[in-house]
From TrEMBL:
<keyword id="KW-0408">Iron</keyword>
<dbReference type="InterPro" id="IPR005123">
    <property type="entry name" value="Oxoglu/Fe-dep_dioxygenase_dom"/>
</dbReference>
<dbReference type="InterPro" id="IPR027443">
    <property type="entry name" value="IPNS-like_sf"/>
</dbReference>
<dbReference type="Pfam" id="PF03171">
    <property type="entry name" value="2OG-FeII_Oxy"/>
</dbReference>
<dbReference type="InterPro" id="IPR050295">
    <property type="entry name" value="Plant_2OG-oxidoreductases"/>
</dbReference>
<keyword id="KW-0479">Metal-binding</keyword>
<dbReference type="GO" id="GO:0046872">
    <property type="term" value="F:metal ion binding"/>
</dbReference>
<dbReference type="GO" id="GO:0016706">
    <property type="term" value="F:2-oxoglutarate-dependent dioxygenase activity"/>
</dbReference>
<dbReference type="Pfam" id="PF14226">
    <property type="entry name" value="DIOX_N"/>
</dbReference>
<dbReference type="InterPro" id="IPR026992">
    <property type="entry name" value="DIOX_N"/>
</dbReference>
<keyword id="KW-0560">Oxidoreductase</keyword>
<comment type="similarity">
    <text>Belongs to the iron/ascorbate-dependent oxidoreductase family.</text>
</comment>
<dbReference type="GO" id="GO:0097295">
    <property type="term" value="P:morphine biosynthetic process"/>
</dbReference>
<dbReference type="InterPro" id="IPR044861">
    <property type="entry name" value="IPNS-like_FE2OG_OXY"/>
</dbReference>
<protein>
    <recommendedName>
        <fullName>Fe2OG dioxygenase domain-containing protein</fullName>
    </recommendedName>
</protein>
<feature type="domain" description="Fe2OG dioxygenase">
    <location>
        <begin position="197"/>
        <end position="306"/>
    </location>
</feature>
Length: 361
């Protein structure tokens, strides 16, 4: 069951942040200025999210394996985020996807607008999750594309400029897909489940990519690059381009913590779907992006989720008297529809799946 169309607000040239940056307005347009309570402030710099060495899980000795698996469990349970190193994806491929994404965003506006995020879709160039003329906009331009399975693709929205964009994205996405399958295997093992439980359950997994470009902003204290939200996916894989400003922040213990990039690492976060499947043991976490006065930022985000046809709910092995059933059973396609037809607002979309009283699943 694929998500049904909806009607977001069309974003025009006046709201394109790269064009605004070029125009150098005397003040930030009101459409981007956040209410005082939403504005970014100096985040706590002293904490670092966990780093998982995937090579120790794949080819390490028994002691290394169990140590790293324990770190993975703690990362998912206490943070909902971690960075993964030695993930097996070639550095040249990581550089190539950054290169074609940057080249696309540096094209003239009229060229990028050949791939518009039209009403009724969540693919193309523009801004997603905008449903009201009064809604505050993020200081970000996006290119979002469905990748797998092929029926979710809109080939007309895959840029032909730069010429190697599609070829690079295909190769990159295949590698990220393999990484997600590996991570889900080890996440299952960290829960004392069969290693193939998630990969078999997901069927032909849905995979989408979103490239985000955040130009410098003369008043980064007034705007947000991306509104606070959790992801509706099972896993999200984030690549932060080399040399970009530090923009990603996660909410931990009511404090926004900046994620310091680790060279050649990928940032992984738990999505709403895994929170439901693990009955809240592993939680999705609110995160946001902030801007910088002088530096731009590019991120490439892959969302990995079950097939739309799959019905989901807490796994029975993770429900007991100490952790009663927290979420109802639902169709993943219905949840995906719910997610993309609501603006980004913390973890509010997950209320779709919550139940208000104890049930046996």
């Amino acid at each position: 069951m694929a998500p049904v169309p909806f009607s977001p607000i069309k974003i025009g040239q006046i709201d394109d942040v790269q064009e605004l940056r070029k125009a150098r307005p005397a003040t930030i347009p009101e459409r981007f200025v956040r209410d005082i309570a939403e504005r970014p402030f100096v985040a706590k710099p002293s904490m670092h999210i966990p780093v998982i060495d995937l090579s120790k899980l794949i080819e390490g000795d028994l002691e290394q394996f169990h140590t790293e698996l324990s770190k993975l469990s703690t990362s998912c349970e206490e943070w909902g985020f971690f960075q993964v190193i030695n993930h097996g994806i070639d550095k040249d491929l990581l550089q190539n996807i950054e290169k074609v994404a940057t080249e696309f965003f540096m094209l003239p506006l009229e060229e990028k607008q050949r791939y518009p995020m039209a009403p009724g879709t969540v693919q193309g160039y523009g801004q997603a999750f905008v449903f009201s003329e009064n809604q505050k906009l993020d200081w970000c331009n996006m290119l979002a594309l469905g990748v797998e399975p092929h029926f979710i693709r809109n080939p007309k929205l895959w840029p032909t400029n730069p010429a190697n964009f599609s070829e690079t994205l295909e190769m990159y996405s295949a590698n990220i897909r393999g990484l997600c399958k590996n991570l889900l295997k080890f996440i299952a093992m960290s829960l004392h489940l069969k290693d193939n439980v998630f990969n078999e359950m997901f069927g032909v997994a849905v995979q989408a990519v979103r490239m985000n470009y955040y130009p410098p902003c003369s008043r980064p204290d007034l705007v947000l690059g991306l509104s606070p939200h959790s992801d509706g996916s099972a896993l999200t894989v984030l690549q932060q381009a080399a040399g970009s400003s530090i923009g990603l922040q996660i909410l931990k213990d009511d404090t926004w913590i900046p994620v310091q990039p680790v060279p050649n690492a990928l940032v992984i976060n738990i999505g709403d779907t895994l929170e439901v499947l693990t009955n809240g043991k592993y939680r999705s976490v609110e995160h946001r992006a902030v801007t910088h006065k002088y530096k731009d930022r590019l991120s490439i985000v892959t969302f990995y989720a079950p097939s739309y046809e799959i019905d989901l709910g807490p796994l029975p092995q993770l429900v007991d008297e100490n952790r009663p059933c927290m979420y109802k059973n639902y169709n993943h396609g219905e949840y995906s529809k719910h997610y993309v037809t609501n603006k980004l607002q913390g973890k509010k979309t997950l209320e779709f799946a919550k139940i208000q009283h104890k049930l046996s699943c």
